[in-house]
Design a protein that fits this description.
The complex is a heterodimer of chains A (126) and B (227). With 126 residues, chain A is α+β, with helices and mostly antiparallel strands. Chain A has helices at 3-18, 41-52, and strands at residues 24-34, 61-67, 70-73, 79-81, 97-101, 105-114. The chains are: A alpha+beta (126), B alpha/beta (227). Chain A binds chain B through residues 1-2, 5-6, 9-10, 13, 17, 21, 24, 27, 29-31, 36-39, 85-87, 95, 97, 99, 103, 105-113, 117, 119, and chain B through 1-13, 91-93, 121, 123-124, 126-128, 149, 151-154, 156-157, 185-186, 188.
């Protein structure tokens, strides 16, 4: 439901970052979304495509990496992916495990290209 | 083609404002709680019962969020504590900037408990840090015991589950043990209190939880001061 706001924040961050790269344009923005972040991937894509439509960033690609919920065991220090909400350590059966990943809502990277470069995907209007 | 690392939160602007709020709350020894639930689970009723119980001289204030109307603020104002309605005009959650704006004309030095009632929604509020110390999720027994599995994020991020409307348990097919088990599946060790805001049943346990958190905060602050 709030994916439009998230998409806007991603786009704002892209525009801010592009201020630091004169003569370049953005081709792809990478975001990381944790499975516990309450973000629907398809809704985010839909909103993102809707807000770049008919703008100078219409060719910008959104790359989404989904991050599973990962816990670290306090007792045996090993890390594991939590499946079916079972946060018990699969190695030593300890219940003392701590979540360290799965809540991401992060901007990972931005791919930028020089204006006038011949790379496929560069906008024809440039 | 160059790849530029960004490595920051998508909601970094919200998180920045939330961090400022958290620092201000700490500076003024304020315990801030963010109450989240579906519409109609009983957040406002829980606040009514809470304000009714607290002594009149207590330094408590409430911010209550809704998409439209001043109804909740009007319900809560009659207890004499400062209450402000945040009408979002369509937005399905509160964000840190709304909190900052609505706190602007309150003197934080006069407060030690700030209760925030979020917009009724089990999804979006979980993404927005408001600078609170603790998120509380309210679930009523008419909603189904599998809600923690269907909406894991908010149960994962909340420290306390308030199971409300337990007076209706004889009339609805709600397995309260399964609800608790599901909540703890998503969030091991989650604290749970069972209440009826209608009959008052279980509210003592809620008030005890609240007072313990307030006391723990004061003790913690005294420890910091005496270091």
């Amino acid at each position: 439901m709030h994916e439009l706001g998230i998409a806007n924040s991603v786009l704002e961050a892209v525009r801010t970052e592009m201020g630091l790269h004169p003569g370049m344009y953005p081709c792809k923005v990478g975001v990381r979304i944790g499975e516990m972040a309450a973000i629907d991937q398809e809704a985010l894509r839909f909103c993102f495509d809707a807000i770049i439509l008919d703008t100078d960033l219409k060719a910008l690609e959104l790359a989404i990496e989904i991050c599973p919920r990962r816990h670290r065991c306090h007792d045996c220090t090993r890390e594991f992916v939590v499946q079916d909400y079972n946060s018990r350590c699969p190695h030593c059966a300890s219940f003392a495990t701590i979540c360290f990943s799965g809540d991401e809502l992060e901007l990972a990277y931005l791919e930028v290209e020089e204006y006038g470069s011949s790379t496929v995907g560069a906008k024809s209007s440039q | 083609m160059d790849r530029v690392p960004l490595e920051r939160k998508v909601l970094s602007e919200n998180d920045r404002v939330a961090a400022e709020l958290r620092a201000r709350f700490q500076e003024h020894d304020i315990l801030c709680l963010n109450l989240i639930s579906s519409p109609g689970s009983g957040k406002t009723s829980l606040l009514e019962r809470t304000l009714e119980t607290l002594p009149r001289h207590d330094c408590v204030a409430v911010l209550t969020g809704d998409i439209q109307t001043e109804n909740d603020a009007n319900r809560l104002k009659r207890f004499g504590f400062p209450v402000k309605q945040i009408t979002t005009g369509g937005t399905c959650h509160l964000d840190a900037r709304m909190i900052e704006r609505h706190l602007a004309d309150w003197n934080l030095a006069d407060l030690d408990l700030l209760l925030i009632e979020n917009v009724g929604n089990l999804v979006c509020p979980s993404s927005y840090d408001l600078g609170e110390a603790i998120k509380i999720v309210v679930l009523s027994v008419t909603e189904g015991e599998d809600k923690p599995l269907k909406y894991p994020s908010i149960f994962f991020k909340s420290d306390l589950l308030v199971l409300n409307k337990i007076d209706l348990l004889p009339y609805v097919p709600f397995d309260i043990d399964a609800a608790a088990e599901n909540a703890r599946k998503v969030h091991p060790g989650m604290e749970i209190v069972k209440v009826s805001c209608l009959t008052g049943n279980g509210l003592q346990e809620w008030m005890t939880w609240l007072e313990q958190r307030r006391a723990a905060r004061k003790t913690h602050l005294q420890e910091i001061v005496s270091r």
